[in-house]
Amino acid sequence: MIRHLLSAGDLSLDDATLVLDTADEMARLTEGRAVKKLPTLRGRTVVNLFFEDSTRTRTSFELAAKRLSADVVNFSAKGSSLSKGESLKDTALTLEAMGADGVVVRHSASGAPYRLATSGWINACVVNAGDGTHEHPTQALLDAFTMRRHLGELAGKRIVIVGDVLHSRVARSNVLLLATLGAKVTLVAPPTLLPKGVDHWPCGVSYDLDDALAGADAVMMLRVQSERMSAAFFPSAREYSRRYGLDSRRQSLMPPEALVLHPGPMNRGMEITAEVADSARSVIVEQVTNGVYVRMAVLYLMLAGTNTTEEA
Length: 312
Hints:
Strand order of the largest sheet: 7-6-5-8-9
CATH class of the largest domain: Alpha Beta
Oligomer: single chain
Number of strands: 9
Mean pLDDT: 91
GO molecular function: amino acid binding; aspartate carbamoyltransferase activity
Low-confidence stretches: 308-312
Pfam families: OTCace, OTCace_N
EC number: 2.1.3.2
Function: Catalyzes the condensation of carbamoyl phosphate and aspartate to form carbamoyl aspartate and inorganic phosphate, the committed step in the de novo pyrimidine nucleotide biosynthesis pathway.
Largest sheet: 5 strands, parallel
Family: Belongs to the aspartate/ornithine carbamoyltransferase superfamily. ATCase family.
CATH superfamily of the largest domain: Aspartate/ornithine carbamoyltransferase
Helix content: 25-40%
Order of helices and strands: HEHEHEHEHEHEEHEHHEHH
CATH architecture of the largest domain: 3-Layer(aba) Sandwich
């Protein structure tokens, strides 16, 4: 297993399969048990270093580390030295002095986790929990884990990712990971919400959602990230929903066993209707549950038996 998890593209097929298989084992060992704790990371310290607001990702990593019996420190930018102007370097040196074994970092700047991992400021293993509009590798892993549980091996499966690809770190990580796993990915979005260079990504691109849904094994809807938009990328919310929203009519175009996913949080009524989000085909709540198993697997593989004071 790699020392740091910074990008889904860093994972080989063997690495990705190992994480997914280990997550399966974590689920098997903890599902349905009254006491869900395992002793595997006892004595290790995991720091959640979040420079951006987050609820589900931070809580998921915290639960994952605690279920492995690690000591967990939540380090939020608000109310800390970071809000007083402390640099990433000084924060890293502080964590190093405190003896952190693993650092889970979310940052608004793309590349911040890579800087933290490669700067030499800290010897801990680093997990990227989302950096700007760049990547979110553990989200891609939990999405793949969820699909694999329902669809079996993902090689050859047809996955459609719909929506605000331009601002989505989830989309980029999913495309890279699913391509590694052998899936056939199609991005569907208005031209204004596709990034430059998308034609070089290992996926297809379409502007017609109805056409793309017909052969899909799974459809992943992306949130429209209005907070990252400084201009008008589409005429109106109503027009966006009409062209690229998943409603009951569009769901009926999908094969009977096709899954509906969403990384959350959802804009109900915009990219997805409440009826579809709560339908039997939706695995959105299951994604949250599976996120804990996947993050347990990542932390276990990176920290169990390693000596973080040594160079990789």
